[in-house]
């Protein structure tokens, strides 16, 4: 029997609450993972995540609790909108705080992210999904996450358009196919790493 997996999805919309296209895409991707993967979704804008590159920036910082959830999960799924062709400032704050992982490696040189898989879901108008996912994947790989084959799942609207993903009456077939591919490849990789962790190098 395949080992059960846990997934933490970080909704990096700029909205602290309410409907968002990022939220809708994340829900679709999580559905594609199926019932064998236990998923938890956190809307990061609703937390007080202080700026900095340590694992605890003092009074009121809610990063330590979120960090614990990231480390406990087998899969990290980051969902972000595109603004000015960039990942949201919320997603960049998450990456900045994970910079501390580099100084928290174990005696074998493995960071807290080793053995964990990261996936990305991007949504927004006009182009930019490849650039945004490239920024996120590079940073995630730097701190120790493993990236599955196939890249991100994403949706981008028409240039100069005013249609949001959350307002679409039907999920486009290509987005649905990409969601399923990301889920399939991520689960496969996460199970392999859980069964056979990375070796140390020291």
TrEMBL record:
It comes from the Bacteria. Gene3D superfamilies: 3.40.50.360. Residues 7-158 form the NADPH-dependent FMN reductase-like domain. GO terms for molecular function: oxidoreductase activity. InterPro entries: Flavoprotein-like_sf (IPR029039), FMN_Rdtase-like_dom (IPR005025). This is Multimeric flavodoxin WrbA.
């Amino acid at each position: 029997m395949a080992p059960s997996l846990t997934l933490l999805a970080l909704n990096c919309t700029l909205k602290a609450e309410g409907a968002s296209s990022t939220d809708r895409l994340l829900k679709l991707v999580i559905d594609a993972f199926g019932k064998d993967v236990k998923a938890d979704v956190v809307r990061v804008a609703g937390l007080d995540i202080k700026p900095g590159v340590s694992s605890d920036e003092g009074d009121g910082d809610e990063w330590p609790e979120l960090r614990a959830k990231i480390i406990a999960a087998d899969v990290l799924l980051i969902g972000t909108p595109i603004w000015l062709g960039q990942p949201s400032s919320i997603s960049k704050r998450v990456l900045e705080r994970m910079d501390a992982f580099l100084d928290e490696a174990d005696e074998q040189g493995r960071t807290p992210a080793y053995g964990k898989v990261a996936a990305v879901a991007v949504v927004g108008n006009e182009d930019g999904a490849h650039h945004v996912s490239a920024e996120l994947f590079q940073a995630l790989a730097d701190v120790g996450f493993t990236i599955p084959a196939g890249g991100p799942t994403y949706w981008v609207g028409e240039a100069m358009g005013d249609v949001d993903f959350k307002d679409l009456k039907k999920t486009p077939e290509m987005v649905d196919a990409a969601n399923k591919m990301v889920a399939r490849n991520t689960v496969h990789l996460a199970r392999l790493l859980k069964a056979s962790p990375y070796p140390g190098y020291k």
